[in-house]
Specification:
homodimer; Aspartate Aminotransferase, domain 2; 2 domains; 14 helices; about 40% helix; about 15% strand
Amino acid sequence: MEFFLFLRMPNVSTRGLEMPASPIRKLVPFADEAKKKGKHIFHLNIGQPDIKTPKVMLDAVRNFDLEVLAYLHSQGSQSYREKLSKYYASVGVDVGADDIMVTTGGSEALLFGLFSCLDANDEVVVPEPFYANYNGFSRSGGIIVKPITAKIENNFALPPIEAFEQAIGPKTRAILICNPSNPTGYLYSEEELLQLREIVLKHDLFLFADEVYREFVYDGKKHKSVLALSGLDQHAILIDSTSKRYSACGARLGALVCKNKTVIATAMKFAQARLSPPTFSEIAAEAALETPASYFEEVVEEYIGRRNLLVEGLNKIPGVLCPNPGGAFYALVRLPVADTDHFCQWMLESFDYNGKTVMMAPGSGFYSTPGLGKNEVRIAYVLNKSDLKEAIECIAKALEVYKEVEV
Amino acid sequence: MEFFLFLRMPNVSTRGLEMPASPIRKLVPFADEAKKKGKHIFHLNIGQPDIKTPKVMLDAVRNFDLEVLAYLHSQGSQSYREKLSKYYASVGVDVGADDIMVTTGGSEALLFGLFSCLDANDEVVVPEPFYANYNGFSRSGGIIVKPITAKIENNFALPPIEAFEQAIGPKTRAILICNPSNPTGYLYSEEELLQLREIVLKHDLFLFADEVYREFVYDGKKHKSVLALSGLDQHAILIDSTSKRYSACGARLGALVCKNKTVIATAMKFAQARLSPPTFSEIAAEAALETPASYFEEVVEEYIGRRNLLVEGLNKIPGVLCPNPGGAFYALVRLPVADTDHFCQWMLESFDYNGKTVMMAPGSGFYSTPGLGKNEVRIAYVLNKSDLKEAIECIAKALEVYKEVEV
């Protein structure tokens, strides 16, 4: 009997097998290995900024004075949602506390939103390259991502309306955008948003908009929310997060915002199943709303400086193409290599420049059309200028050495 | 055009429509309304104890001294997982840090586990009554719950092995138990666990065990983990949480523990998509492992006192049947009413005794066989003895009055 026991083993699910590994995190074991060997790694692979979290946020948690760390309301506390509603008013979005559901990160907001609106085998149209985990969340619910491709030569602007029309079929239930975009940094113009509104209303689709980088727009541009467009109250679903806004990625606190009451009521059932968002995190997030405007002014100035350094530095390297991002803190960059999955792993495993190397996210993971993005990487300019400069030099050096390896 | 816009509205998903509302939280709007009217509510509906969270946990967060609230490793930090592995050794479970995945609550552990092991339309056999949200997590992934019924007359012991054999079919991939049980408080004997092992190995199924109440077992009984049974390394998946153990429900920090490396690797893809567990919560949970043994001794003594008070008090009420739970802090109680959904709502909306009333969780939500549990409620004995006594009196009074209403 005992022998028999060890021969058998149940299989994991097809859903699990098909779940894509995160392009942002799948190289972590190689990075861990490199660190063990004493290499310093510049982490440009992940949107984890080195910017300080506002002190008011951390202090609120340090001053926690209750004796029981209790559950919150499944939708998030009333006081936080009321304050959030005022915050949204300040960015041109008119929503009440009841239109807001507090979630465990933007990730959970998107998961609840997708699961509430789409069934297995339903389709969501997503301009690619897109934030890799959209694929994971969709896949976990059997939802099919229909990509339409934005081009690096066009600075990753919204694909033409005809591309949407071609992608939309009888199973299409939603369009999902990220604005400003992770991974490209592209900021949609109001004209592009109005085009999206037209498509959404024509086909009666939900419009999901991940707007977690709202505060980070550059060159005098202005961000416009999908919830600030008239006529979309029943269709627009805003995904939000405190992670990037306050450099508080570890809080894992986000929000789903929607004026369609049926969507909120449906999402509530998913929210109740997981009981509540994390209490410490909500305390921090509520305090975060008192962050002074000067904080954002300084941070935006810092990101502009980093972006300029990155775009200029990378475009000087032969064969590299780095578009100029209008927002967020990412750039999707074309490199003169055939396979960035291999190149990025090689940089961790086999390369260093003065004991240092750079971790980047291979581009292929941000596309769902097979074969695309293989010569691209996503770079998060989340490190200070001095580190960023060294990292750019390191990439330049690596590309030189890799030429010999690749052949 | 504008008029046309307001006529259309996309539909939510069938998945969302079919998602069950939580029996524990669905009456919250009625409770909120009652509170507005000045009624005091004894919350016996939810496993939110009034027991103090260990100070060492809260202090660890109060002493947070970093300037950036950063992401953690998707699997949870190495240091915490190493300490957890020592904790598990102390309860007879031999697992390494790599066999542990830190999750956002036990909820997420179960979600990742189910999604990693079961596809849509696969079946999981669950002894009912069961923790209501098992239904929700399964439903959200298209997984079908096959209930086998445990009987109140039998103190909710494990149903006979023949019932399992009848329920298991070609689509069955797993069995899911909760031990000690939420909502019944039943503690499985070692003999029952060995029966489960036999079934699981015979049919090559995964065995999920939610053991979050492990520390709370009474009357000299001992808890045994499914991971402490030999021969189940590839089959057993342990769901764990800090919520109940440390009265820290708001932490939302749990773990998935499994020696099957393929399961952990698959769950990692789901974990990477949501980035990481909440950082403050993990800091608290890591510190929690230093909680002195005396804390649990006191808490267990307190729960035994409450249980005795509840069981004795309820069984004195005419027509009420309250089995004696061997663990956790719940009892599933039969009341002399036809529809506890109506009764529980009525207690919030239309009843009070000296300005006070009791909130309980209707039993129907803990069964998936339609029609069962309609004369049962789940009571969580999470309030101090003085409150609990008042609550029992209030229930007795309510049953008297309701007799007139119901007829």
